[in-house]
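Consider the following assembly input.
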Amino acid sequence: MKTVLLSLILLFYSIGLLSQENNKEIIKVSTHDLTMVFTTSVNEKVLFQYFGDHLSDASAFPGKRFKEQPDNGTGYAPTLYPAYGGRYFLNPALKLTHADGVLTTDLVFVNQETKNLDANRIETIIRMKDTLYPVFVDVHFMAYQKENVITQFVTIKHQEKKALEVENLASAYLPLHAESYYLTQFHGTWAAEMQMVEEKLTHGIKRIESKKGVRTNQSESTSFLLSLNGPADEDHGEVYGGSLAWSGNFSLSFEVDECGVLHTLTGMNTFASTYHLLPNETLRTPEMVWTFSSSGKGQISRNLHDWSQKYALAHGDRLRLVLLNSWEGAYFSFGEKTITDMIDAAADFGVEMFVLDDGWFGNKYPRNNADAGLGDWQVNREKLPRGIDYLAKYAVDKGLKFGIWIEPEMVNPKSELAEKHPEWIVKSGKREIIPMRNQWLLDLSNPAVQDFVVQTFDEVIALSPNISYIKWDANRHVDNVGSDYLSAGDQTHFWIDYVNGLYSAYERIRAKHPEVMIQLCSSGGGRLDFGALRFHDEFWPSDNTNALDRVAIQYGTNHFFPAMATSSHVSPSPNHQTGMITPLKFRFDVAMSGRLGMEIQPKDLAGEDLSFAKQAVETYKQIRPVVQLGDLYRLVSPYGENGWASLMYVSKDKKESVFFAYSLKYHGRTTFFETKLKGLDPAKKYTVKEINKHSGSRVFWGDGQTFSGEYLMKAGINLTIGNPFESAVLLITEF
Ligand code: DGJ
């Protein structure tokens, strides 16, 4: 962790600030493998000292890490939470305007509290106050011991006479010092989400942000990696993983200053978001999720997967079901028979759940396309005369669970809801309400709309006692922002209040329906953040179901989010989004690396494809515990130039592993694919078996043979896959 040690230049804070005598408090936030250190004393600044590999003894810090520097106007000692004012000239974590118009804030230490919440979670709160004003800022850390994740958020309150204008309130600030910094970000657009890009940071500010309000993670992700002294490698080097748990406007800024120090600030976007905080009111930031590894980014992913399965995902200890979703198989055109036929076929396939997608509701304005009916959550009696209960019971009688689609935050202009509640629609005064996918957004900053969303969920669930799963969609972002509910002076609260209103609705729903499985859809990746995910069982990474594109999308996604939550569906060929033709085996092999599902009209499968699909579903059920609960090792990146991709999952006890490899382009007749495996026990012997073969194909020469873990990890394996969309799945079991 040498390079992370901050050779920071001490400024001109009061002489002796960092001397041994004055720095009485050493605040350590530690997990099994990680430590953060802050030093301070009462009425002094809280200094950031260290975040990296675990330190058993932090007592060496006070007075020893920083050398006093003459004032050259550029130095500074990084604090826990830099506020605008004094000598601080970088982007601050906190910027307020006090009730008397003063623009600056000067935070000093009050006290700290550390509590063991249970055997795995240690909470630390560092309390600070302004030196002149009754403004109180607390930074809350939670250290997850086993998973090596540290989360943090900030709360602010005050007792000034009038409202404070809160302009910047970051979730986290992290200063680092190294020779160079490499940022991996994940950008995207509809049908091409989580595209991974890495760049070297140079001087100045790199900012990643969203002002879209809703579905903000679809185009820019709140998750990122920072690698020190070289590009991020899977198994080597110091890498920080960060993920802001927030589904609204956000900003991540990475500033390399004139001393070569990198300052990372993460939080809600400050754009048009000034918050007027009343005396004694508390404003809380989103949570920032951190992890670190000195042995590459693979460990970052495994830490976050373990942590989210336990703390940021509903039912993270339960295996996910194989489902058939009706969307690409039926779209809006279905009647009762279409659905019961699909359920019959799903049962025949060994599928475990059927999900009825969009199009089942609306009577005055039937939802027969995306133009009408959204908001009117009553069953369309013409399409489904016996209602949802009949279909759900039909599924259950066939041995399947039943799920249904909703999009409760949105409304079509052509709907009874829009006629009844025009005041609930997000709009900018008398300006045009701009439709997107022919729909408007409901104003979740309004508690009446939050009630409506909760009530919609309750009513839809009540359509049948046999509904086990809800697919929650959200298909637009915010344009021409404004709220009829918020006062004229508080319109800038919209961005924060919308998301908090959504989270409050989620919380109420989860309290009432703890057992229901909920998919976080948002037209694909739109809310792929831990803020929303904690209320859901899984997410829909993309509307693009083309297997080739999914290899790259899911590879980006799996840097942060676990396979068990990654809905991955086999869809028709030619693919409906891209027109690309791919073999059924390739489509299954890709989908089986996440939570397998199908997005297809089953009657379109026949002959060998039909029997292969049935067998593939059964195969998935066998490998599911390893894929969904095992450790991920990425082997070959689809973002590389060679046109192959490969990854594997290893069970926690290292007794079983599932390996996937994909050929993404034509490689020439004589080329073959070779890779070294990871994560196995070198001392164990493993039998390697090719599974999910279509028409008896065999691509591994050693199929069925036994090898040592050491051999597989050092010598590796080679496979005869080289044509476009050839793929292999290997089951590796302890001998
Ligand atoms: C967007 C979703 O991502 C799709 O899966 C589907 O549910 C449609 N919306 C339905 O309108």
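DSSP finds twelve helices and 37 strands in the chain. Ask yourself how this observation constrains the way the partners meet.
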